[in-house]
Amino acid sequence: MKRFLLFLTVMLSVLSCSEDRGTLLKVYNWGDYIDEDLISEFEQWYLEQTGEEVSVVYQTFDINETMLSKIEKGHEDYDIVCPSDYIIERMLRADLVLPIDASLLGDTPNYMYENLAPIIKKFLSMVDGYGKDANDYTVPYMWGTTGFTYNQRYVSPEDVSTWNVIKDDRFIDKIFIKDAPRDVYSAVIQYLLRDEIAAGTVNRDSLMLDTSDENVALFEEYMSDMRHRVAGWEADFGKEQMTQERGWISLAWSGDAVWAVMEARETGVPLDYAVPMDGSNVWFDGWVIPKYARNVKAATFFINFLCRPDVAVRNMDYIGYVSAVASSEVLEAMSDEEAYPQTVDASYFFGEQALQAHLNPSMYPDRSVIDRCALMHDWGTDADKLISMWARVKGNQMSSWTIFVIAITVLLIAAVKIQKFILKRKHSIRRQRHISGHAERSAKAS
């Protein structure tokens, strides 16, 4: 409620002084992707650091493409947005982002790059900037893997050790798949070409750039054959379906899995998360400053604030995703020997001090898991081809969940029409009676 009231206050100030943007910062982020208490704290911190006031207008989107379309059209002057890795590539190619200038911080400590994890720096080096260095335009925010959230009552770790579990008839109508073609394609194609990867004739990283007709057809055939097992194609509701035991397996991003596991624990539902042995995706989302930004200084400070180790820890505790910040303070805060007695090798993230770390393996997977994952990329000119393929994959999907929703909708529409028909019929009868009565009275009068 307080964010809503702040939003109204800020919008009134915008209307009264539309040209003054030095005291206004417009942020566009994914839903449920920040501890919103940090926003007001940033406003206070900005005042302390610069002696200037700023008010944040915070808005959210649900898919990358929604955000990108607004930036491409130039109709929105957002100061800072949070796209995924492949969208960052697309924005760099289209010259839609500005360089991030740390000199704007003045005497304020620069937290943006010095605490980045080695693996995150590797991700940045793999971003195809089309002649631009992604390091100059992007500060990574959160990162993670793609795998399965699963209900341990009905599904074993062995079941979800392979992507082929989605074709297991034991789980018909109990599987939710992300309506995210890039994530699904990039993971499943690794399963389909697992023998070639094992033989060394195919490289995982190069496979993420391979959208050949042969591979696309291979994926489409495989997914089309299993779609009758799917309970639903979801963008965000899969984690709730899992916590309520309406699904037993859900293809999920690791942060959503962490959230679902914690929520389900409160009601005694035993969820867990696993990355299949066949291989999967790693991904990251990062902050960029769009070319139409009008408060670049405050945007730079906002990014820097979120990279502060204490802020990063609070954010992770709230949203379940993993910050790109890898300082010793973060390692200490996230370590818990009692909760995670089995150690993981997280040296790829924190360095040698994390060779045997007591960390949540869903958030910080063992190095062996990371070694079998690859970073996704933009599909470039093949995007339309792959999106059309994905539409065909889902096109004939009629799961019980889908049928249920359609049936309820049809029944509601039918009920409304029947009600309208009854009311119309009653009105017609009353009208006929009125006319008949009037005719009788006229006849008697004459």
Folded structure, characterized:
With 446 residues, this protein is of the alpha/beta class. It has 3 domains: 192 residues, D-Maltodextrin-Binding Protein, domain 2; 161 residues, 3-Layer(aba) Sandwich (D-Maltodextrin-Binding Protein, domain 2), CATH 3.40.190; 31 residues. It has 18 helices and 13 strands. Strands 5, 6, 7, 8, 9, 10, 12 and 13 form an 8-stranded mixed β-sheet that branches. β1, α2 and β2 form a beta-alpha-beta unit. The longest helix has 46 residues. The protein is globular. The protein starts with a helix and ends with a helix.
List the helices and strands and how they pair.
Elements lengths: L1 H15 L7 E7 L6 H14 L4 E7 L2 H10 L6 E2 L3 H9 L3 E2 L19 H9 L12 E13 L23 E4 L2 H12 L1 H6 L4 H4 L5 H14 L3 E5 L3 H6 L5 E5 H13 L4 E4 L5 E8 L1 E2 L5 H11 L2 H11 L2 E2 L4 H7 L12 H4 L16 H4 L2 E3 L7 H13 L4 H46 L1
Parallel strand pairs: 1-2, 1-3, 6-7, 6-8, 10-13
Antiparallel strand pairs: 4-11, 5-8, 5-9, 5-10, 5-12
Helix pairs in contact: 6-9, 9-17, 13-14
